[in-house]
TrEMBL record:
Matches recorded under InterPro entries: GDSL_Rv0518-like, SGNH_hydro, SGNH_hydro_sf
Record's keyword annotation contains Iron: no
GO molecular function: hydrolase activity, acting on ester bonds
Residues annotated as domain SGNH hydrolase-type esterase: 238-408
Keyword set, alphabetical order: Signal
Organism expressing this protein natively: Corallococcus macrosporus DSM 14697
Protein name according to UniProt: Lipase
Amino acid sequence: MGMKPGWRRVVVCASSALLACAGGGADSTGWDLPPDEDRTTTLDQRAPESPLEVAPVLVLNDGRQVQAAPPSAPVATSFQPGFHQALRASHSVGGTTTFRLRVPVAREGGRLRVTFRSGDGGMTLVRATVAQAGVNGELVSTPVPLTFDGAEGFTVAARTRKTSDAVAFPVAFRDELAITFEARGALAASTISAFPGSFARAGNHALVTDALGGTVFDRAVGVATVDVEGPTGRAFVALGDSITEGYVDTKNDTRDAWPARVEAALGVPVVNAGVSGQGFYDALAQLDGEVLALQGITDCIVLLGTNDLGDKDSLSVIQGRMNTLLSRLAPFCRTWVSTLLPKEKSNYAPYEAVKAQRLEFNTWVRGGATGPDIIDLEAVTRQPGDVHLFLDGLEVDGIHPSVEGHRVMADEVIRVLREEAGL
């Protein structure tokens, strides 16, 4: 049975652990409850007109003192890539040469570390610094020295990655860094020119803060990865060929390539592991050093296969190698697979075979054979009346997208990731 609120007066005596109930004497039998029809008060009617303020949760500690609940745990931080290049080629220098590479870094944080990679032979790095990049090879901040296991430089064998010690260097999202280093031997390098604002000069000049001088050297060289320590979040890597690396012409800008456009729009790193000319065989052979060596990657976008088209057994080979690639990536990242872009010609294989296999491959991808996460880049770049032709203005040579083509591709990737990846 219920009681009127006035009859429910309970006093908690914390010091003696006693409960004293008001009115609990011998005459309490006179407290008869009213008939049911008179008990019309409801919870809603008894509710206050304005919301109640809730006091903070209190915690009784070992000293038997009441204290406010501790603050929530701080945001987790970690090192994740803000820049990456696969660096499949090799560039050799006999005497010590200073390189100043201008790179955009798509991550915010307070510390960073730089990974260098040697080419097809041994490499010696004498000294390296990092600073904010200015124009024409100038620095706009004091260069901060990098160290490697506490040493100023290092020597490594062919095709070896060497990561610097972490250094305090605050960066904002999409800051432009000048990474300057003195090196000799074989340096890993990108296959295309896509880093305007970078320079090379013979001799030891890593500490120069004015324009470096020397000659323009707009290939990524030596510097494979820049990891930034910041709030842990989504981090993408794009696997592909020249279409992903960003080839448009003999002079390019990695900032125009579709991965860079996607990261700029979404505010998350989409680092570039594209290599011009590669197919599935090369991608699988180099996967450990160019992709799986990265730390903190959560998602992989795969746009690969156009260079594999043409032979009579190519389709089955491509499908098998795609499945192998996805199996190797499965423990590493969530995979997003793109359809292949229109191809208006073929440089090597019979064009009719290329056309037929590309259509079959795209049908296979759309059918879910590579998983549910699909980005249909063919659909946004093809002519409505001819699946083999690009929309006007989206290509430069019948195979490679124009800068506008990269923008259209990026817009579709952005749309899909916002809708399907929660970005």
